[in-house]
Amino acid sequence: MTLTRRLFLLVGVVATVAGLAVVAGVSLGLELTDVFLGLVGALAAIQGLRYVQRRRDTTPNTTVTGDPEARISVPMPGSDFDDDLVSAAGRRTRWAARERVVDRLEARAKGALVARGGRAPEEAAALLETGGWTDDPVAARFLGASVSIPLRQRVRLFLSGRSSLADRAERTVAAIERVGTADDPAGERR
Amino acid sequence: MSRGFDTERWTGLDGLVLVAAAAGVFTREPSLLLAAGLGVVVLAYVRVASIPEVSLRVERDLSDATPDPDDEVEVTLRVTNEGPRTLFDLRVVDGVPPALGVADGPARLGTALRPGATATATYTVTAVRGEHAWGETVVVVRDPSGAVESRETVDAETTLRCEPELAATADLPLRGLTSKYAGRVETDVPGSGLEFASIREYRHGDPIRRIDWNRRARTGELATVEFREERAAAVVLVVDTRAEAHVAPDGGAETAVERSVDAASVAFSALLDGGDSVGVAAFGPDECWLAPSSGVDHRTRARRLFATHPAFAPTPPDGAFFPSVALRRLRRRLASDAQVVFCSPLVDDYAVSVARRLEAYGHAVTVVSPDPTTTATVGARLARIERDLRLRELRRSGVRVVDWGDEPLGVALARAEAGWSR
Q1: Which among B294, B313, B316, B315 has a CA at the least distance from the CA of B162?
Q2: Which chain B residue has the Cα nearest residue A178?
Q3: Helices (H), B104-239
Q4: Which one, A88, A149, B155, B306, has least CB within 10 Å?
Q5: Residue A101 and residue A106: Cα distance in Å, rounded?
Q6: What highest taxon heads this organism's lineage (chain B) (predicted)?
Q7: Residue B298: which of B364, B235, B365, B368 has the closest Cα?
């Protein structure tokens, strides 16, 4: 017990004993004047508000049980990419996550052009450079090609509010999905 | 009596009491002072609140302790208060094994319990392959005011063991998985070979040199001698059980590892029936190895292994794993001419390199890959593209791949085999 607490305890005990003495009829020369009552009331109010404030800072301490009824949940394939997209929108993790997203999509686009589109690796790299691998300028730009997006499309994109990183990544994934299929603009010319 | 721990539920009441008293003093209103007095009584009660010593007996009954997969098992949880005092607020949460999903009813109970009384909770779980042990049952006891709480655990050992039969359910075209060249492994299948197996009635087309001429001279009947057929090498079913392989299309769905083990167990049975000698291995943190062999005992061992070995559990492993060490160990164990059936969802590049390296070391590798990908999110679609690229890479490097989607395994195998023979 610290010295201050001990002191406060002493004051409390003295006050209680004095109170009991007054009840028993001993006069201590204290009158219930307005000033005295006001003092006691103010002290009680201040202390009371302090306690209420303390309540606001404490969190209830109670046992939390999990969900034993649910089966163990394992991640979905690709959830790491979704996490990257989320952290690419975050303030602190933005650049690293953005780079991971673009790098991964670029590698997959190249892989798809080689494996599905029947291109040579150098040819695939060149296609990515020029943006000729897809008919979607947003996807082409996302992977580093300097393709200009027509003004009308740009306005439409801006107005639709679908120009975030996640939206552009989604369009790029859709473009990679189309590689090697019937509606592939850079389709096999063999 | 035990104190438990303070829940802080009534923290701040002392402040309210003081504020009410102060207001009473300022306004000269006796009713406010009286209210403060009431608060003091509640505070005093909270101060002395305690909970009795908790002494509970927990029993758990299963309607069937050895069910078949997908059977519904009813679990009855009985909680008896063995202490001398009434428990006013008792909450019981059962420790359902993580791999089991509760199909009906919550696995918990909230009640007051007199001394000697018993409360019962009933719920239903859906059985899946494996050996599932119930964990600790969590018991939370509070005093009536909620000021004090205690959390305890009670253990009631219960195990549910679900061992699917290893019968090849369909006529699987698995013979295409293993080569039919003669080799040095003897099988129980009668045919041509060196070691005598049996004599059967002559059928048109049997080779003349295998006719039992002694018997012909004795009885006048034609009979054909059969030898134990010798077939190429052993087949080892390697299941990818790394943490990476524990993925599923959505929360409650079968995980890729569960499907891989299913595929391996079906393949095991079919290959064994076909006269091959089959082994089992897990490629993951929990080591598991069953050397290639054949026979009834071997089948029983494998059945138990698939069902109860921790490596094949549906829950992700948490041990450290060194893939290159594990791959070296696996290679040392594989006979040089052993064929490998690698069951993996192929959701990362390392799985591909395992298959390619085994192929490069001279083992004929067939990858059976359950597809865990969906199109629910952008990431999932990308994962599907990546997996497709991996399958193509494997096929290009000469590894045979069975891509197993939602269809039955037999259908996927038939489709894959049609592709191989082209």
Answers
A1: B313
A2: B385
A3: 213-219
A4: B155
A5: 9
A6: Archaea
A7: B235
Cα B379 from Cα B105, distance rounded (Å):
34
- Which ranges of chain A would DSSP assign to H, the alpha helix? 3-24, 34-57, 79-88, 94-115, 121-130, 137-142, 151-160, 165-178
CA–CA min distance B58, chain A (Å): 17
Residue B394, CB half-sphere, CA atoms under 13 Å: how many? 31
Which residues span the domain enclosing B194?
186-231
Nearest to A179 by CA among A121, A130, A132: A132
Range with lowest mean pLDDT among A38-47, B110-119, B187-196: B187-196
ipTM rounded to 2 decimals: 0.71
3-state secondary structure of B2: strand
Please check whether residues B223 and B273 belong to one and the same domain.
no
Res. B346 pLDDT band, cuts 50 70 90: very high
Q: What is the mean pLDDT of residues B367-375?
A: 91
Check if the beta carbon of residue B270 is closer than 8 Å to that of residue B375: no
Q: Is the pLDDT of residue B175 over 70?
A: no
In terms of domains, do B226 and B238 share one? no
Please give, rounded to a whole number of angstroms, the shortest distance from the CA of B328 to a CA of chain A: 27
Pairing of strands B339-343, B365-370: parallel
Q: Kindly list the domain boundaries of chain A, sorted by start residue.
A: 84-178
Given CB atoms, is B374 within the 8 Å cutoff of chain A? yes
- Model pLDDT for residues B8-25, shown as the tens digit of each residue: 888 889 999 999 999 998
Residue A186 has pLDDT above 60, yes or no: no
- B-facing residues of A in 29-48 (CB < 8 A) are 37-38, 40-45, 47-48
Q: B298, B268 in Cβ contact below 8 A? A: no
CB within 8 Å: A78 and B373: yes
pLDDT at B385: 92
Going by the DSSP 8-state scheme, the letter that residue B397 receives in this structure is: T
Residue B358 has pLDDT above 60, yes or no: yes
Would B179 be classed as within a structural domain?
no
Question: Which residue out of B7, B8, B10, B11 would a mutagenesis test of the A interface target, given it has the greatest number of A Cβ atoms within 10 Å?
Answer: B11
Selected residues 134-163 of chain A with any CB under 8 Å from a CB in chain B: none
